[in-house]
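Q: Here's a chain of 226 amino acids. Please give me its 3D structure as tokens.
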Amino acid sequence: MGTRILAIEDDERIRTAVRLALEDEGWDVSEAANGQEAFDAFSDTPADVVLIDIMLPDIDGFEVCRTLRRTSDVPIIMVTARADTHDVVAGLEAGADDYLTKPFAPKELSARIRALLRRVRTTDSTMTDMRFGQLEIMPEQGAVTINGEEAHLTKTEFRLLVELATNSGKVLSREVLLERVWDLGYFGDGRLVDVHIRRLRTKIESDPANPRYVVTVRGLGYKLQA
């Protein structure tokens, strides 16, 4: 079974162009023109990666993303016609792993999808469990508990936490985290890191505004403290 991509886009021309470009990469692509079609398609055949256009005719892309996130940690790329902070941050806060701004080149889309799939499929079975106070990280099982309760993280949030944990006490810059977690390096957007850190804190910190574990080092980046 090949990699399955679900492309949610109301503009038929763009949707067709995306499908053809991805099929040229050898991927199996299904399409949806609106939110309800997307939910039906994902329910019938869950995808490996989902592309969601923000401007949809029935349910906006933010809500589609939030709805999928309630039941799945599938990698999601939000597609926006604007690169302004509001749309980008709102898409990431809704649960997206990455974003693309229209117009985009097919090769850029393919590169983002491959990067997502590498992150999903790469696990290090040699890593041992790590504990920081009441926070326990189990890389081999892909699980995290806080105060004995499981924290439900997306794949990207989990990789971000593991990267910080394996470098406990060290400050990691946004650029380093973009390279190691998103495979984007200096060509990435620091907002990806900032929003995912905020989302991560809401799941593992008792007071996200005053974090105990994942702290900000102003002007330098983030670190996980024991």
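Q: Can you summarize the key feature?
A: The chain has a mean pLDDT of 90.
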